[in-house]
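Before relying on records like the one below, remember that each one covers exactly one chain. Contacts with other chains, cofactors or solvent are not represented anywhere in the record.
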Amino acid sequence: MAIRNDMTMETATTLIYDGSFNGFLTTVFKAFEERLHIADIQKNSIGQNGLFSKTETVFTQMDKAKRVWNGIRNKSNSAIKRIYFAYLSGHKGIEVLLYRYIQGLFQKDGGISGDFSNDLYLKISQLAKSVGREKHRMEAFVRFQYTQDGIYFANIEPDFDVLPLISKHFKSRYADQEWIIYDIKRSYGLYYNLKSVEIISLDLKEIHANSILKSSVFSETEYHYQQLWNDYFRSTNIKSRINKKLHVQHVPKRYWKYLSEKKEAV
């Protein structure tokens, strides 16, 4: 019996991009335009493994990324927000999940947008919701400390990459002062120079948590204000009425080391 070697079988492709959201959107454009059979989409910092696929490097092109963004937004305004939030989750394999999700959006029958019975839609929605919760927590729990250089500084360690989502909030709320919010888990931060917000990277020698021990980095005035805040916090709390379980639910312990009102607790 003769064995037929089917050379028409399509080879799967793994696309490698620079790790930015615009880079990801560019890969989506390429995959759609060239009608590629996608095996995986990986950041260039990840070890490439394409045993049964060919790999291609995709260079970010803003015009193509914008076309994908606008195309999704025109299809569903809520979908583009959901996709961006889910992307910032950093979930393993999020790129391929989102690519499949975007494919579903553009199906002729209206796609999977809003279909909670679809496992893929449900997964993306859950990830986006988790990132949204972390965004709101960061906006509530960031505590700045005034440095000797006249800049307000705050460390954060969010579960997800929410810095791009909280930039607008802090720029609006603290428009009259210079500040830095630094994500020590991802080694980058936001610096507001009274005009615009810049992305920066610092060589931190220590993590500046709100500890009882003082640091020479911060001004003495800062510690006076922190003491006043702690005194106020203690005086307004009635111990007999504290619901510790509910309190921890709203203010998880992982944030305590950055909250000045929790100094004595940590």
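Strands lie at 12-17, 38-43, 53-57, 145-146, 152-156, 179-183, 188-192, 197-200.
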